[in-house]
């Protein structure tokens, strides 16, 4: 599937970057007891978002994947500046 969850946090024991797996969440590959929460979602070159909670990141990524599956994904809806989502909502109020 397209997109993934990544962490920039490091393991305090070995210095390795923590990795995401569905089974274990964000953890060190060598020390599974070391966990992390801060992460980012990267969806191709189009979309990058940071999250302070793994649960929020998983929910966001699953929502994006669902939009792609339904054929409704438009990267302009997720732009920080000049988002398309705002324009379509405002225009929809007056039509």
Task: Give the N-terminus to C-terminus distance in angstroms.
Answer: 37 Å
Number of helices: 2
Order of helices and strands: EEEEEHH
Label the structural class: alpha+beta
As for the number of domains, it is 1
Strand content: 15-25%
Q: Keywords, please?
A:
single chain, 95 residues, alpha+beta, 3-stranded antiparallel sheet, 5 strands, 29% helix
Write the layout of secondary structure elements.
Layout: E1 4-6, E2 19-21, E3 25-27, E4 39-43, E5 47-51, H1 54-70, H2 84-94
Antiparallel strand pairs: 1-4, 2-3, 4-5
What does this structure look like?
It is a single chain. With 95 residues, the chain is α+β, with helices and mostly antiparallel strands. It has one domain (4-94). It has helices at 54-70, 84-94; strands at residues 4-6, 19-21, 25-27, 39-43, 47-51. The strands form 2 sheets. A 3-stranded antiparallel beta sheet has the order 1-4-5, covered by helices on one side.
């Amino acid at each position: 599937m397209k997109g993934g969850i990544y962490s920039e946090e490091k393991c305090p024991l070995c210095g390795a970057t923590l990795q995401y797996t569905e089974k274990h969440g964000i953890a060190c590959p060598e020390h599974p007891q070391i966990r992390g929460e801060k992460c980012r979602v990267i969806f191709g070159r189009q979309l990058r978002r940071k999250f302070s909670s793994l649960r929020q990141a998983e929910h966001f990524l699953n929502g994006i994947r669902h939009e792609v599956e339904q054929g409704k994904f438009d990267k302009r809806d997720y732009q920080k500046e000049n988002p398309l989502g705002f324009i379509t909502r405002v225009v929809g109020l007056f039509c």
